[in-house]
Every structure is written in C-alpha cells, then in structure tokens.
Amino acid sequence: MTKSHKFRAFLAQIALCAGLVAPAFAAPNGDGARGPVTNLPLPRFVSLKAAEGNVRRGPSLSHRIDWVFRHRDMPLLVTAEFGHWRRVEDQEGQGGWIYYSLLSGSRTVSVATDRAALRSRPDPEGPVVAEAVTGVIGRLGECGPDWCRIAAGGTKGWVEKTALWGVARDELRE
Q1: pLDDT of residue 39 exceeding 50
Q2: Is the alpha carbon torsion for 164, 168, 170, 174 positive or negative?
Q3: Does one domain contain both 74 and 120?
C-alpha cells in the first residue's frame, strides 16, 4: 500500500470516527435532551468530587489537558457525554472533558454575586443570618421558584436563586 493510499485510509477512519462521536459533542437543545450514556438530562449540574480534576480537550487520556479544576465540590454543568467522559463547564464557561469518576451527583452551588445574604426564611425581609461573597461554595438544599436553601461554612440559610450558579432558574427541589 502506498503512502497516498495509507493516508486516504487514515482519513476515512477519522471520518468514520467523527460520524460516531459527533452526536456526543452536540450542544444540548434544552428540550428534554438525554445523555446517550447515562440517559440523564443534558445539561445538568454536578460537582467536582476530587480535590483536583484534569479537564481535557477531548474524551480520552490522549487528549491534551487544558485546565485543572482544583476546588473540591465546585459546581459544574455537564453538557455532553461520551463513554466514561463528561463534557463540563464551570461558572465562567471554561471547561472540557473530565473522567466521570471525578464527578459527584451531590449538588453544590457557587455564590455569583457580591455579598449574597443568607436569610432565615425565603423572604427578602427575612433576617440575615450570614453574608457570602462571590465564589463561596455551598451544598444545595431545597429550592422554590425564587429561593434556595444552602449550607456553607457551617451556616444554613435561604439565598435568592439569582445570586447562585449551579441551579437552573426553573428548578424546584424538595
């Protein structure tokens, strides 16, 4: 086989693989999309289970590491699945592919506004029990239409949903 034939065969293999992988790379449409591997909703929020997680350009160990997430429990948005790999984004839209075992279904949120008030009840007039600065990570509890209960730094309180990243605006939790 000549070099030209080998190269054409190689290109054909790449095209075949691209056809098989492309659906996993597709952006979720928000219309009840499901992951092809887990059958869980896409997009969906998860958290980083490990203290450190390599984020790669593609879904394999042979792909270059673009980022290293270094914050255990940080919320992440899963946007695609391929085998044991999940395409994730952080609050700033940075991301790539991460191995599934580095992720947890335990839900966390990040405070997205400066000095978000944690209140004793889901009411803008409720007493403030603490204030959280931008980037504070808390465990997500129940959520109503406009408020979510979080636990952060040993304190529990209700925070306006618009001040959080890691929970969908229309998400309700009990």
Answers
A1: yes
A2: negative
A3: no
Element (H, E) at 165: strand 164-165
Summarize the confidence of residues 43-63 as an average pLDDT: 97
CA 25/CA 39 separation, integer angstroms:
15
pLDDT tens profile 96-138: 999 999 999 999 999 999 999 999 999 999 999 999 999 999 9
Closest CA to 158 of 123, 118, 110: 118
Q: At which of 85, 106, 127 does a domain end? A: 106
Contact indicator for 157, 116 with CB cutoff of 8 Å: no
In this structure, what are the phi and psi dihedrals at residue 12, rounded to the nearest 5 degrees?
A: -65, -40
Check whether residue 22 and residue 99 sit in a common domain.
yes
Strands laid side by side in the 85-89 sheet? 65-69, 53-56, 95-99, 85-89, 75-82, 44-48, 103-104
Using the structure block, give the residue that is written with the tokens 């999309």.
33
Structural domain boundaries enclosing 21: 3-106
- Structure pTM? 0.81
Q: Which amino acid is at 65?
A: I
In this structure, is residue 173 part of a structural domain? Answer: no
Question: 3-state secondary structure string, 65-77?
Answer: EEEEECCCCCEEE
